[in-house]
Design brief:
This protein is of the alpha/beta class. The protein has 17 helices and ten strands. The strands form two sheets. An eight-stranded mixed β-sheet has the order 1-2-4-3-5-6-7-8, sandwiched between helices. A hairpin with a 2-residue loop joins β9 and β10. α2 crosses α3 and α4 runs parallel beside α17.
């Protein structure tokens, strides 16, 4: 009996040690986040083990765990008709509000899910719930793009899927089929989906063959650049779940099909050193010392190397491709973009990506709403239902949909 008790106590202490991590006191529901993070880290460890043993790619293991219990078939409800279909070769899930007459033109949102260009699906419970709620609350048609993922495909295929699916939906005959008002379409996404939404919006603005342009773009804690992994938010939140700084670098290298050995070079900004002349123009567009307010700069210092590793840019040129990094777009392109909503969270390595983009858009004359959450963390908006229910998830989702309702 005594030995059993000792084993139980030992296991409890071990579990507590694994679960507990120090978190900022202002973060939303820290113990819930610790439990969520411990689960996520555990799956990552299993994935890394499977990868090292040659059993499976670590990203595939992680994606299996993320999607296994939450994949839903296209199930309609009293207020929303749900169908899976294909737009120009791209899988999409369409949510059509059924309220009102068939002749009434509806608003629409093209939504692109997050997941580091490697995880998730439009068919996941969390995204199905979000898009269903948008369709019902806005009395709208929501198109959720189920783009292909790494490691099966790499950049620019995720971008191509998002662009082709969105462009197809914007065709006059397709909008008419779904009874959508061509003047009331938004493009939106979260995290890596926010990256794709921003890149898609830029290309739509430039594409003269697209006659129906989006009215809005709404970006939820978007990832927008891979030139500086030492912005104040990357420095401040490097050890804050669920998106740790090294994990974000791994997602970038997987997306851009870069060698994993480049992780350290990216973490210390060796790929954007002062001796690399081809990076100079792009580096200036992510200069946080000019784009961030003093309240966010705090005591942090820029990390700029005098000499670096030219091999990184040579082998991963997509780091400088605006389709992968929308923050480095020229101002002439930014001037063409629609009214924009940017949601950022204080406890998120990507906080400054979103804030810098909002600032650059404002400098280009674009009307921007910046919605910042002091208690928020990366990914919080999709954690609004059991078993990953967070009050910050409900609050961010409510305010995001409210903004769409007021502006779309």
């Amino acid at each position: 009996m005594k030995s059993t008790l000792c084993v139980v106590v030992f296991c409890s202490v071990l579990a507590a040690y694994y679960i507990y991590i120090p978190l900022p006191h202002t973060i939303s529901e820290p113990w819930k986040l610790m439990m969520l993070d411990a689960t996520f880290r555990g799956v990552q460890h299993l994935g890394n083990l499977a990868h090292s043993l040659g059993l499976s790619h670590h990203i595939k293991v992680l994606n299996f765990a993320v999607t296994f219990f939450g994949m839903l078939s296209p199930t309609s409800s009293e207020g929303v008709r749900v169908t899976d279909t294909v737009f120009d070769g791209v899988q999409v899930r369409v949510f059509e509000a059924t309220r009102g007459s068939n002749s009434e033109l509806k608003r629409s949102v093209v939504y692109i899910h997050g997941g580091g260009w490697s995880l998730g699906s439009a068919r996941m419970q969390s995204y199905d719930y979000l898009c269903r709620k948008m369709a019902e609350d806005l009395n709208a048609v929501v198109v959720s793009v189920d783009y292909r993922l790494a490691p099966e495909v790499h950049f620019p295929e995720q971008y191509n899927d998002a662009y082709l699916g969105t462009k197809h939906f914007l065709l006059p005959e397709v909008l008419a089929k779904y009874s959508v008002d061509p003047n009331r379409v938004a493009v939106s996404g979260d995290s890596a989906g926010g990256n794709l939404a921003a890149a898609v919006s830029q290309q739509l603005a430039l594409d003269s063959s697209v006659t129906n342009k989006p009215k809005l773009q709404s970006l939820i804690y978007p990832v927008l650049q891979a030139l500086d992994f030492n912005t104040p938010s990357y420095q401040q939140n490097r050890d804050v779940p669920i998106l740790y700084r090294p994990l974000m670098v791994k997602f970038w290298l997987e997306y851009l099909n870069g060698d994993p050995s480049f992780i350290h070079s990216l973490l210390v900004n060796n790929h954007t050193s002062l001796d690399l002349s081809q990076v100079a123009t792009s580096r200036e567009k992510v200069n946080w010392t000019l784009l961030l307010p003093s309240t966010l700069k705090k005591h942090y210092k820029p990390v700029v190397q005098a000499t670096g590793t030219p091999k990184v840019i040579q082998e991963v040129p997509a780091l400088l491709d605006v389709r992968a990094a929308p923050l480095i777009a020229d101002e002439d392109v930014l001037k063409l973009l629609p009214q924009t909503y940017v949601l950022t969270c204080e406890h998120d390595v990507l906080r400054d990506d979103g804030i810098m983009y909002a600032r650059r858009l404002e400098q280009a004359g674009i009307r921007v709403t910046h919605d910042h959450y002091e208690d928020g963390f990366h990914g919080c908006m999709i954690f609004g239902l059991w078993p990953t229910y967070f009050s910050i998830g409900i609050r961010t989702m409510h305010n995001y949909i409210k903004w769409l309702d007021q502006n779309l």
